[in-house]
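Chapter review: from sequence to fold.
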Amino acid sequence: MRLKAAAIAFGVIVATAAVPSPASGREHDGGYAALIRRASYGVPHITADDFGSLGFGVGYVQAEDNICVIAESVVTANGERSRWFGATGPDDADVRSDLFHRKAIDDRVAERLLEGPRDGVRAPSDDVRDQMRGFVAGYNHFLRRTGVHRLTDPACRGKAWVRPLSEIDLWRTSWDSMVRAGSGALLDGIVAATPPTAAGPASAPEAPDAAAIAAALDGTSAGIGSNAYGLGAQATVNGSGMVLANPHFPWQGAERFYRMHLKVPGRYDVEGAALIGDPIIEIGHNRTVAWSHTVSTARRFVWHRLSLVPGDPTSYYVDGRPERMRARTVTVQTGSGPVSRTFHDTRYGPVAVVPGTFDWTPATAYAITDVNAGNNRAFDGWLRMGQAKDVRALKAVLDRHQFLPWVNVIAADARGEALYGDHSVVPRVTGALAAACIPAPFQPLYASSGQAVLDGSRSDCALGADPDAAVPGILGPASLPVRFRDDYVTNSNDSHWLASPAAPLEGFPRILGNERTPRSLRTRLGLDQIQQRLAGTDGLPGKGFTTARLWQVMFGNRMHGAELVRDDLVALCRRQPTATASNGAIVDLTAACTALSRFDERADLDSRGAHLFTEFALAGGIRFADTFEVTDPVRTPRRLNTTDPRVRTALADAVQRLAGIPLDAKLGDIHTDSRGERRIPIHGGRGEAGTFNVITNPLVPGVGYPQVVHGTSFVMAVELGPHGPSGRQILTYAQSTNPNSPWYADQTVLYSRKGWDTIKYTEAQIAADPNLRVYRVAQRGR
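The token string follows.
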């Protein structure tokens, strides 16, 4: 059956029996038209004849499923949260957010990102602009047809802040995502930066506490992470490439993923997932190559220490000459009246403060350079990644566009070659620049954390330009860690160093991450799982990976911290069955010891005592007696330091925190996700305990863990075989945030029982779906 475009000028036609030709998402009369095939769990397969119509289809279906999330993201990016969500004063987080975003609007940041040659590097290409324009049109088409007062999602039904979008709205939300790990992470410090007064600090500390600074700055990027495997021919049963994608992202809000399959025949054909509100696949696969991302350890901004002109704290010296800061006053409206802030910009970027360390004093101020603030290359980069035929071509895309804002890439192709690369946007802090331009008091901070503080009084300490870099100020591809392998590569949010244990990546600038240092328990488990699977020692049949075995490994829910220290911990608490908690109370450990002795060292639904060990780990109880060995980084350290009194204190603290909750409770009885009145049991656990399948559920005292806030989200285990891609996938929190949608909790229930949806890429795979629902969306005129 072929549906005629002329019959659907402003409407939707639905067919459920036959599957139209994939080419029937045809543009007409200069308008948009897209074919939507909703498969099981509401996953849309969208086909269109051009990128504008493809974007139209994406905007329409994402509005059907998540209009409230998109609308709220636009409110945020336009600095209007105070207006709509009840902020009452200058200390409100929404007010600070609005001030930050209103400044970006006043500075015309998004508009300036669109200026320049449309080559996908200096400015977005026509293909990407068409996608964005089409997405806006599709969203607006759904909103116009439905009406704000007839939306089925109570979160935004009838709300005045739900309105038609403009293209600049979408570009602003994109910019907001780009700066998440840079100026967005320092939002509060930028908003709070004001010239010193008599009551302010007279001077900054000459020897800052490197550990305290790193902890304060790293806390701003908490809440995101990931695991990924790229498996080559030597690691898979069939000799073809395979990828495991396992991003750990928030389960609520704008950073949720959305599954979809996008196709422009002959030009683009990619299945996977994107963040809600984005028109392009960001993690996924085409016919011959698949990829995922993990959050990189590389830094996204640098500090510049400014030497201020005496008596004028808004002027600073560069090469001995004074230079005035540029002041801009921004005002937002709140429930209690207007709030204004004056921001100060320098040649390096905005002035920011971290109280107690990076203070603005009469003599010194600090400005940051966020290298993603000008990143307008991301959607072009992901578009071209989706068109790559193998990992070598994919790397060429990464080299050209250098667009990944804060993530690594892990990939594999049908030929059986795997790729790891930290091809993210990284400030150009070379070893030579660090040695010459980081003042001595800040050298320990750089050595320990990669956080660079440069001398802003010297123009030769600016970031400069690598000849092979896409833009000035960032490290070029030749300075970034890359590894091709025919066995495997992996990353679980540690640095590049051990992406391939057989061929460690060493000698790169410190700003990218540490080398030859201990790896996290999650990284170690991720590597151990691969090595055991290849050796056939993990208890599963055979050797090597199939997608079924990869799924079993992913959801094996091993808790590596418990595997290493549980037995020693049980022996310790049996020898000394009481301990003093942090609050001074004496705690009986007998029941805890019994529960831990019966714990199966996993985070499965029927695991008893998993929550107790997790709370012990969160209290800092995993302290090792042996040392890290660089020659054995996966298996060291591994012995509990039973002589350290903090170990027993951590167990006592865990018992106290779990008061009112049985210490031997089944995980599935207390570890859930609430959907309306329904409580869905959730497996998985905290990365701090060494769980690969990360799930973060805050403890509610006396109750348990009733709501997931972060963790495993989109999971894809895909093999790139000779007959096309195959495998398994799931979106743990489901497609829609609307409680009245049929796709609000269905994949969450599926996840609870370790189920999966199949890869549906080929026409045969799509047509075989028993729940297929087909419709077309179209609009005349652009």
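Two observations follow directly from the output. The chain has a mean pLDDT of 94. The two ends are 27 Å apart (CA to CA).
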